[in-house]
Design goal:
Layout: E1 8-9, H1 15-22, E2 33-40, E3 48-50, H2 52-55, H3 63-66, E4 69-71, E5 77-79, E6 86-88, H4 94-98, E7 105-112, E8 117-126, E9 134-135, E10 139-145, E11 153-155, E12 159-160, E13 169-174, E14 180-186, E15 192-198, E16 209-218, E17 225-235, E18 243-244, E19 248-254, E20 262-265, E21 268-269, E22 280-284, H5 288-293, E23 294-296, E24 302-305, E25 316-324, E26 330-340, E27 348-354, E28 357-359, E29 367-374, E30 384-388, E31 394-400, E32 403-408, E33 419-428, E34 435-445, E35 453-454, E36 458-464, E37 472-475, E38 478-479, E39 490-493, E40 497-498, E41 501-502, E42 507-509, E43 515-518, E44 529-537, E45 545-555, E46 563-566, H6 570-573, E47 584-588, E48 596-599, E49 601-603, E50 613-620, E51 626-628, E52 634-637, E53 648-657, E54 664-674, H7 677-695, H8 699-737, E55 751-755, H9 757-763, E56 770-774, E57 777-783, E58 790-795
Parallel strand pairs: 1-34, 2-8, 10-17, 19-26, 28-34, 36-45, 47-54
Antiparallel strand pairs: 3-6, 4-7, 5-6, 7-8, 9-12, 11-15, 13-16, 14-15, 16-17, 18-21, 20-24, 22-25, 23-24, 25-26, 27-29, 29-32, 30-33, 31-32, 33-34, 35-38, 37-43, 39-44, 40-41, 42-43, 44-45, 46-49, 48-52, 50-53, 51-52, 53-54, 55-58, 56-57, 57-58
Helix pairs in contact: 7-8
Bound molecules: 2-acetamido-2-deoxy-beta-D-glucopyranose (2 copies).
Length: 797
Amino acid sequence: SSSGGGKRRLGPGGGRALLGAVLLCVWWRAAAERVRYTIAEELGRGSLVGPLARDLGLSADELPARKLRLSEEKQYFTVNEENGNLYVNERLDREEMCGESATCSVSFEALVHNPLNVFLVTVAIEDVNDNAPRFLQDQFQLEINELTAPGARFYLGIAEDADVGSNSLQGYELGTNENFAVEVKESQDGSKFAELVLRRALDREIEQSFNLVLTALDGGDPPRTGTAQLRINVTDANDNPPVFAQAEYTVRLPEDVPVGSTLTTVRATDADEGLYGEIKYSFKKITEKSSQTFRLDSDTGAISLLRSLDFEKSDSYELEVQADDGGGLFHTAKVVVTVTDVNDNVPEISVRSALSEISEDAPSGTIVALLHVRDKDSEPNGKVRCSIDGDVPFRLEKSYEDYYRVVTARELDREQVSEYNVTVRAADGGSPALQSSAVLCLRVLDVNDNAPVFAEERYSARVAENNAAGALVLTVRATDADWGQNARVRYRLGEGRVRGAPLSSYVSVQAETGALYALRSLDYEQVRELRLWVVAEDGGAPALSSNVSVEVQIVDENDNAPQVLYPAPAAALGSGSGGAWSGVELAPRWSEPGALVAKVVAVDADAGQNAWLSYELAKATEPGLFRVGLHSGEVRTARSPLARDAARQSLVVVVKDHGRPALSATATLSVVLAESVAELLAEMGSAADEAAAAAGEPAGSLTRWLVLAVAAVSCLFLAFLLLLLALRLRRWHRQQLLPPASGALRGVPVSHFVGIDGVRAFLQSYSHDVSLTADSRKSHLSWKPGTGKCSFQFTEK
Ligand SMILES: *[C@@H]1O[C@H](CO)[C@@H](O)[C@H](O)[C@H]1NC(C)=O
Ligand SMILES: *[C@@H]1O[C@H](CO)[C@@H](O)[C@H](O)[C@H]1NC(C)=O
């Protein structure tokens, strides 16, 4: 008897789908109102039932917006969309719909949208006398013994009328006859049956049989009738009637008893012999429905099932069985069949309305679906419990009666779960319980709630200088957990300046790929590193963004040759001799091995190995006389100069860095070896002439200038010498006057350094060390290039 078992999938279904589309902005009103109408049965299609919209309080204006709909399983009624009246959709037969029950009504829901509300509409259907009484058999036969005393009663067939109340069967009539009358009796269940009453004794010899017409009447106006033929045969005497062992048989059966099984067996006995003792069983007083359900074996008295029982349609039957002997005597007994409920109906879930999409920021408690559940079984088999399968963020709320709504239990996150199949399960209270389920498919719509995230916390890259413009430096990458446009990441460069110029003139970021390109060739000597921000922004509205710091280190290359600062380049002295560097140095002939003659000073604009310089002597007039410190650049005497060494020595020093490949520069020094000031001046003169000649100047002018300068220095120096002597004498004299702590000049340091600022201005044009000889004493006047300090050293031999 169960039909709607198994799963019910949500599908497009007329009004339900329509309702689903608008449910998002729905309030649920928990209380439902009821409307009740009464109509007569058999009304034609289109007959007015009542003004439903008006009765629900809807005005004609708001009717189109509110979308009044009916939710019926069978379309008995329709509602007119324009005026909101309820009409009959198909002819209604009360007997077909409700059978024998005294009242008959149809209930259904009227759904109103914006906001959603449900009304319960009940239409009561009243009976019309549209059925005539009808006998189950149209011929009855009675055997009446001639000895039967007047007043004896005989059961006659029962007639049925499908109508109820006054339209139902009211009485029976028999055609005029002196011997017989008919009397109407009412049985316990209220049905009326006819009994034949013998009014006068019969005489088989006078009249062997009678043919009469039995008429059944109902109470309608006008009344309807049904007839049956009644034939009465008068028989010979028969003393003993059959007798049933029990006056009443009661049978209790579960509704799922298989068809064909024997329910019970009735048994009667008759004391007569032969034909008068032969018993035949038959149903007396049986309804049409019962006669289709039960079968009585006329010989054995076994009652068996012709078709399956259904507790939900009928829970008890009352039958009357009669045992007839061959002599016309009979006895009746009652059989009461009670049907018990079996859990044979699956709970049914119907989805009245459901969303298919929900935004991930929908607040907790948003209604997702409206369900109706029911079970045709009676308690406790029909008590339904509903639940939602699995750990999903949804819960069930009981709305009213058998309605439930599915609501969100918390906020959803599309980045975690983008789609839900919510299984709602309904189980009844039977043992074992039956259950069914419905699946709601729900897609979660994206909201831009995630900012792009860079793959790395910070980026750094190293780029060799002198790169090609447009070279790829590195690629940054950011991902966004959102979907579609909300996850479309675009990159751009953050604001910034490098050496006063906008950062965007140095590098650019490709918006789509995040590739960072150098826009120009970078120079380590100008910019050591670039610090910048790259911003990633998604396509949402409003957009979300994040940034990452990028550090680009520029790596040095050996692209600068060493630059000689001292000796000054020849080009600086005169018109360029090109790349070579030269100068004139003075060295006393009494120099000891290792005495400092000059220092070559060079710098390199590169860094590290590329700027690490080494000095080598490439060429010398007298090989072995001088050596150059590999890293200091100091030119020192390797041995004491000998008399045979030429007075003028020329040295070429190569300065090299350690880059790959190495770059170099050369410096040329002229060294003058002299014994005395006079020789020095002569040699210097010729050396300067040579230098001037190398510079392309007339030799005479330079010589004159030099002789003048040296003579001036010598005079000045002599004046200082005298002054110093005077000072020393004065001090010695004072020490002689005061008692000395120890020896006369013992405490005086071996050498004195006296700074003479006044000399500086005079000596500024010099860039030479000048060594002079004064008899056995050596004094050393030096001016350190660049420091602007002049010092005078006096050494005692
Ligand atoms: C939901 O059900 C549909 C069809 O039944 C299936 O294609 C889909 O993969 C299911 N989704 C989830 C999240 O289980
Ligand atoms: C980068 O983001 C931080 C916060 O994460 C913010 O303070 C800073 O201003 C941003 N920088 C740029 C250049 O947008």
